[in-house]
């Protein structure tokens, strides 16, 4: 199966409500789509979201990395030389993990089609269904409480609550949400780097002392501050999950060796795709650290790739794949079935993506 052509396109999908974190506010998903065509007629699909505030990858950067580095290296290659092609994607340009992830998932899609097996089976096939949480944006406490109740009405029983940079208000936000949803709902929080280490410990311990029952806190401090992350891990009652501190397998090794976090959030856009995500997952297994599989604000092609990975491996004990359910429409044909919190992976060969409605080609 030889790669004959690669096309780039763009999609724009409005969100149901604006998505707000300590790092950014977004009203729509504006992603780059990759179609990898082959001489057998099989097409592999990839997707990358521009998340400048999180990864540094803008739309232009993703297109540039693909057009100038990744695509020229892939054209003419045989999908069956899979290991070579995987290495090529990772080595043909420095950084640019989102563009690499888009190419990586399209190639896994094709490799699965070549051997007529769904990718999640190829990778381990631990299960065919997973349950996601849903994210509540950071807003005024009463608005977050309303959003949380709405999420419960949609059937979710695990909420990922975004917090901000104001400690008093953050405690109020969590109090309002806990009061509105009752004791049985799982609450996890994501500070997206907003706090200082000592401040984080104070806020988290205050939240636990008030009986707010948090499952874990995601990325309480700056991405680069591993010492600070470890300080929070060592001193807070609440378990700590590393997100922005872990992009590459090398980052993961540092966090694992230093025991700087209790859990790791693996996202395809941070690590450059399934090839590297598998390395992080294996390292985490060796250290006995469970993982969350997460996403950026992404539509269904790239989240679908994360579903394939999550269904393959037992190490993913937490699922944050709510990108598609935060969108007001789904232009992606095929792939996993998203029924609110229940996600069922496709049993088609590869990743089961059949096309994209309203794709704007960029060539
Ligand atoms: C969408 C997902 N639940 C989520 O919250 N991801 C964020 C980053 C999303 C973004 O800014 O695009 C996270 O875990 O930090
Ligand atoms: Mg996060």
Automatic annotation (TrEMBL):
Its EC number is 5.1.1.-. GO terms for biological process: peptide metabolic process. Its cofactor is Mg(2+). The active site is at 162 (proton acceptor), 267 (proton acceptor). Substrate binds at residues 24, 135, 160, 295, 297, 320, 322. The keyword Magnesium applies. One of its GO terms (molecular function) is racemase and epimerase activity, acting on amino acids and derivatives. Mg(2+) binds at residues 190, 218, 243. Belongs to the mandelate racemase/muconate lactonizing enzyme family. This is Dipeptide epimerase. The lineage of its organism: Bacteria, Bacillati, Bacillota, Clostridia, Lachnospirales.
